[in-house]
Amino acid sequence: MENNEQQEYRLENLTCASCAMKFENNVKKIAAIESAQVNFGASKLSFAGTATIEQLEAAGAFDGIKVVPLHMNRKIVKTPFFKQKENLITLFSLLFLLVGWGVSIRNGESDVIAIGLFAVSIIIGGLGMFKTGLLNLLHFEFDMKTLMTIAIIGAVFIGEWREGAVVVFLFAVSEALEAFSMSKARQSIQKLMEIAPPTAMVRRNGNAVELATEDIAIGDILIIKPGQKIAMDGVVSSGTSTVNQAAITGESVPVMKQHGDEVFAGTLNEEGALEVTVTKVVGDTTIAKIIHLVEEAQAEKAPSQKFVDRFATYYTPAIILIAILVAVVPPLFGADWNTWIYQGLAVLVVGCPCALVVSTPVAIVTAIGNAARQGVLIKGGIHLEETGRLDAVAFDKTGTLTKGYPEVTDFIVENGYDEKILLSQLATVESLSQHPLAKAITTYADENGAVKGTPLNFQSVTGKGAFAEIEGKKISVGSLNWAMEISIVPEFALKEATTLQQQGKTVMAIITETTFSGLVAVADPIRQESVDVLNKLKEIGIKHTVMLTGDHEATAQAIAKELGMTDVRAGLMPEQKLIAIKRLTEDFGRVAMVGDGVNDAPALATASVGIAMGGAGTDAALETADIALMADDLEKLPYTIKLSRKTLRIIKENIMFAVGLKIIALLLIIPGWLTLWIAIFADMGATLLVVLNSLRLLRVQNK
Q1: Cα 117 off chain centre by
Q2: By the 8 A CB rule, do 135 and 63 touch?
Q3: I want to staple 597 with a disulfide (CB 3.0 to 4.6 A). Which of 3, 175, 357, 621 is the partner?
Q4: Does residue 642 surpass a pLDDT of 60?
């Protein structure tokens, strides 16, 4: 294996952000490793170079970190609460602390038995922390465990055995709660990883065999029974069924699948049997890409996290300096040494940067994981934060605000003609046409029970229309100008056609022999949810919405009027959309572009946030956009902006909690009220507030 080849592993027992940083530094010290990065949110290690699992686990031995190959289907066995080693240690530490406390109340704090019980409590609860802390001290690495070790040894040195035991116990509780909370935050990714089954039934050489997904090749045929999950991405080769795609796209309503339709790994086949031809290997499936992109997103540091990291770099040395000054300066002016050394030790405990370090990543991890479960792929903390600050949203028209395919909107029949017969004749002619609007007409006819006949002498007239003989009659369908060449079109029909064209619709005339017999209007219809989405965007504070389209002005204005949109930029080429985004940014600030991820690529790349529709079926959308709405569902847009804004608010609250509680605790030094147990409560309280506050993001739903 080449030294520069990138390798990835999953990590178990990674408990805290500072532990992740230390583990990353230890891995970088391995001789054959060139670079390494630990993704705390996703519990993942990636590095360039070579190293054995034993070497990697040795680098994480200080925290009991286990290293697992990335694609290994390892079932994580959950240990009951009372059997977990950390919890047992904490409980025994508490037991000796309580007994010692009872003895000290009866015999006094200086009682030898009480001191012995407190000492046992400190050793049981803090042995692992002391090993790490003292080792760090030798290397001048000042992390949370180093500060706690100095504080507890100092407390023992000045005779505060009970305080030292209380601090050890509370610190152990704090670490256990932080590990539990981070585990809760990571559950969104873990659930994604469990979506696709590890094996599937495959037809090979005429036999049905069960294979691990890693052994399934492109072109294999999957046999999927009712109620089974689909193991691989592919195309339906036979059978018809509804498939629940909620796990991938967030769609609540199952989708009908038949021959030629695309299906995704991890989706649930409902009532019918299907055979699916595999189109992607296990590492390239849509769910695999989603998991990879979500994990990468969680590894990418958001601007607020970078600020916190920079701040923490100076914060810890500053706290150590303050603690030394508090312990030394007052006694130099005649104050009691024991009292002020105690206060200095309390400052060290208060100063633990744990809550501050975890304030941003836990919120980012939770938000991105929650969004992925709702069918929204956010590709990084920076994009999450930018979305939370959006001022304007620009929409591509076709396929975004509209359905993206034509439908018949109006069918007007001249007096004397039977509507059903005329519709059957119209569909019969169009059944042989290759024109893009022909499918819209035949679909409309099928939906309305029209029966297509057999056309004779069919002919398509380029730029005009088509005609054919049906039961001895020549039926022509085409543009109004062409219709007026072969027939007299009544005045009322011309007026009706003009009205329909002003609404952005394409109008065709139907001619029977040489007599006008009706009109059919086709349009790319507005999505039902578009108006509601635009209203929701206004409600959540988006200042401006604009439609960017390549369509001509009349069609664009008609669509905009129906949507209630006031700003329309029509007749735009892709490069002109890019210029429009730049101007919108100058006028309104941060602008999002919502498009299909392919035709709108330049505009998506230029916008503050590029949002692609229907990412589940489009690799290009997953690659080019900052955010992908996995289902073709515009209603996910207000949810995404709402989630992002709440994340920004929670990050600010977290930083306020982390810093504010510590400032309040430090102010207690002035009247001399700061004690070690108040200090640890301030630190633990800040960490818990930060984590629990971040977990509120799990409750943000798409409603």
Answers
A1: 50
A2: no
A3: 621
A4: yes
Residue 463, SS3 per DSSP: coil
Please, which pLDDT band fits residue 551 given cuts at 50, 70 and 90?
confident
Edge-to-edge strand list for the sheet holding 465-470: 407-413, 515-523, 506-512, 473-478, 465-470, 456-461
Q: How far is CA 377 from the centre of its chain?
A: 4
What is the identity of the amino acid at 106?
R
Q: How far is CA 441 from CA 315, 500, 593, 652, in A?
A: 69, 17, 32, 55
Cβ contact 629:248 at 8 Å: no
pLDDT of residue 191: 65
Return the residue matching tokens 């439609």.
Answer: 547
How does pLDDT run across 200-213, given as a tens digit for each residue?
A: 999 988 889 999 88
* SS (HEC) of 497-531: HHHHHHCCCEEEEEEECCEEEEEEEEECCECCCHH
Instruction: Give the count of alpha carbons within 13 A of 703, CB side only.
Output: 5
Contact 382, 610 (CB under 8 A): no
Task: Collect all residues with Cβ–Cβ distance below 8 Å to 344 and sequence separation of at least 6.
Answer: 154, 323, 324, 325, 326, 327, 328
Q: What is the 3-state secondary structure (H, E, C) of 389-424?
A: CCCEEEEEHHHHHECCCCEEEEEEECCCCCHHHHHH
SS3 567: strand
H or E, element range at 456 = strand 456-461
The partner residues of 477 in beta bridges, in order of sequence, read 466, 510
Q: Which residues are catalytic?
A: 396
Max CA separation in the chain (angstroms): 119
Gap between the Cα atoms of 135 and 129, Å rounded? 10
Sequence-distant (≥ 6) Cβ neighbours of residue 699 within 8 angstroms: none
pLDDT of residue 150: 83
**pLDDT at 318 (0 to 100):** 82
Three-state SS sequence of 99-121: HHHHHHHHHCCCCHHHHHHHHHH
Residue 2's pLDDT band, with cuts at 50, 70 and 90, is very low
> Are 413 and 420 contacting, i.e. CB atoms less than 8 angstroms apart?
no
pLDDT of amino acid 412: 93
Question: pTM of this prediction?
Answer: 0.71
Q: What CA–CA distance (Å, rounded) separates 381 from 222? A: 37
Q: Please, is 701 exposed, middle or buried when counting C-beta atoms within 10 Å of its C-beta (0-12, 13-18, 19+)?
A: exposed
Q: What pLDDT sits at residue 550?
A: 79
Convert the pLDDT of each residue in 481-494 to its tens digit.
Answer: 899 998 999 999 99
Q: Which amino acid is at 387?
A: T
Q: Is the Cβ–Cβ distance between 351 and 686 less than 8 Å?
A: no
Instruction: Note the pLDDT tens digit of each residue in 420-446.
Output: 999 999 999 999 887 778 889 999 999
Q: Range with the lowest mean pLDDT among 14-28, 324-338, 639-653?
A: 14-28
Concatenated DSSP letters of 192-238: HHTTS-SEEEEEETTEEEEEEGGG--TT-EEEE-TTPBP-S-EEEEE
CA 35/CA 594 separation, integer angstroms:
37
Dist. CA 4–CA 541, nearest whole Å: 47
- Count Cα neighbours of 185 within 13 Å in the Cβ-side half-sphere: 33
Q: Summarize pLDDT for 129-163 with one digit per residue, the tens.
A: 888 788 877 877 766 677 778 888 888 888 888 88
